[in-house]
């Protein structure tokens, strides 16, 4: 029998793929590391070589899932041809209308036994995306479009709201239900960013994104 040798990257991703599949089927709390290695047909030591614990594996899985989303945010937020308003419009449309289908990535977190993964997702989202949103807020202040006293705290609040109240991995809202909840506090966002009333109307945001991003 020919022995198949996999690179460290391939083996690591294989572990994450298997864990993601089992977390979707059984939930994080009900999946053991033995379940993962048994399905893979490898020894326990193989898993622990790459991940010190089940929690470390979970953090790595969420980080991998956020990587593509963060790359999209980074490309938009640091695009020097876009205004801060065009960028915040893109974020609203990206999160609410889901033109790229990124919401589906986290649908498995709705499983009753995935509460730990949902918590990890929320913490990583705040930690990874707050610096990006802070830079966007600073740009908006410089352009005179936003009037924000504390760009970092506003970024944290914005992310917390988007990724908690309207989060499909936490609540089983459909698209219309998510949008209705954001519309209900649209004036709060306008006050938060210091923009005129109606500036964050979803129809205006969508039109801005349609022109600039073709969504």
From TrEMBL:
| Keyword Iron belongs to the record | no
- State the source organism's domain of life: Bacteria
Question: Which Pfam family, giving just one, matches this sequence?
Answer: TetR_N
Which InterPro entries does this one have? DNA-bd_HTH_TetR-type_CS (IPR023772), Homeodomain-like_sf (IPR009057), HTH-type_Tx_Regulator (IPR050624), HTH_TetR (IPR001647), TetR/AcrR_C (IPR049149)
Q: What is this protein called?
A: TetR/AcrR family transcriptional regulator
Recorded GO molecular functions are:
DNA binding
Question: Where's the DNA-binding part?
Answer: 32-51
Q: Please list the residue ranges annotated as the HTH tetR-type domain.
A: 9-69
- Sorted alphabetically, which PROSITE patterns does this protein's record hold? HTH_TETR_1, HTH_TETR_2
Q: For this entry, list what GO says about its biological process.
A: negative regulation of DNA-templated transcription
- Protein source organism: Lysinibacillus fusiformis
Keyword set for this entry? DNA-binding, Repressor, Transcription, Transcription regulation
